[in-house]
Amino acid sequence: MSDTLFQYKARDTGGARRSGLIAAASEGDAAHQLERAGLTPLTLAPGRAARRARATLDHRAAAMRRLASLTAAAAPLDRALKLAGGTQSAGPLFSDLALTVAGGKPLSDAMADWPGDFADAEIALIASGEATGSLPRATAATATLMERRAAGRRTVASALAYPAFVVIAALLAGAVFIGFAQPRFEEVLRATGADISPTTDWFFAASGILRDFGGPILLALLVLGLVAVMMGGTEGGRRAITGIAHRLPLIGPLLSDRAMEAYCGALGAMLGGGAPVPEAARLSARMLGAPALITAGRNAAEGVIAGRAFSAALRDTGQFPDTMTAFVEIGEETGGLAPLMDNAAQHFGQEAEARARRLAAVAAPAATAILGLLIGVGAYLMMTAVLDVYDAAL
What we know:
It is built from 15 helices and 3 strands. The protein has helices spanning 27-36, 57-72, 77-85, 90-102, 107-112, 120-132, 135-191, 198-232, 235-246, 251-272, 277-284, 291-305, 310-317, 322-334, 337-393; strands at 4-11, 17-24, 40-46. The protein has a 3-stranded antiparallel β-sheet with strand order 2-1-3. A hairpin with a 5-residue loop joins β1 (4-11) and β2. α7 (135-191) runs antiparallel to α8 and α10 (251-272) packs antiparallel against α11 (277-284).
């Protein structure tokens, strides 16, 4: 963040108590901002950012879309921000933005105080709108970028939801069987004194190993999951996780298409707002997510600064698909790079949707087949043990 965060409690002109977070260079500056916003400070405490839960991306996108409508209707910006936040998780965030704006800061600077909630390209879009006097258009473009990011996450989540459910159900069923049912059955079988077949003996031995080490393994997986969640709360952690996910089969190409959609959408919005190509390319690179793609995007921006054509600079990185460079090349030839980037974003969005459908079509039957195979093997082993008991009885 550019400033220190202060958690405040204050009274407004009507005597009502208000509380929230405000970013300022010092405690005195924070108090001054509150006073300019019509609030009388009661308490100010630095470094309490964790007390406000982070807004979800879907709620942030919806709030930004409402803000675009309100600014287009010429509503005062601070009031528009308060109304745009609504009652969902984005409400506290947009209330904090409203207070900072009412204290005299531009909206882009207020957004920069929350880098975990707003990407560089989104902040730059708002800054360009403020500079050119077209804030409603800039907020609408920012809302579109956020909606595309949210749609990308939903696509991946929906494609993996059923396979994940099947895997979790199989693990739970296996844990109940191996932890409770199988030991009792083995005890009864061995009490009969029957000769145990090699298959049944192997089954009992494997179950014992899983009972002994399954708990620590599940605990280790849980710890890894918690570490991944904690890493996802930091920018470096998110990039590392995204980089790994981009290398996975089936999922990787889907994420790459979503990254290209976000990149092209950011480029189109920023170029349409009058940003120069090198600056738009540099800021849009962070929308790519994976470290290798971000580096490639920045290298392409540096190539444009050095005097190369944007399409050639993208092609030289070896990280961008031919379709992407073709869109850029046509845009350079026709002088309509901004609308071509919007078209490219739509193209990659459609490609991602098609990949998600194919992934779901493959993953769901595969997960069902694996679960059926596990059930079949378990039933076979149990029937073998039952036959051992039957032979002993004879």
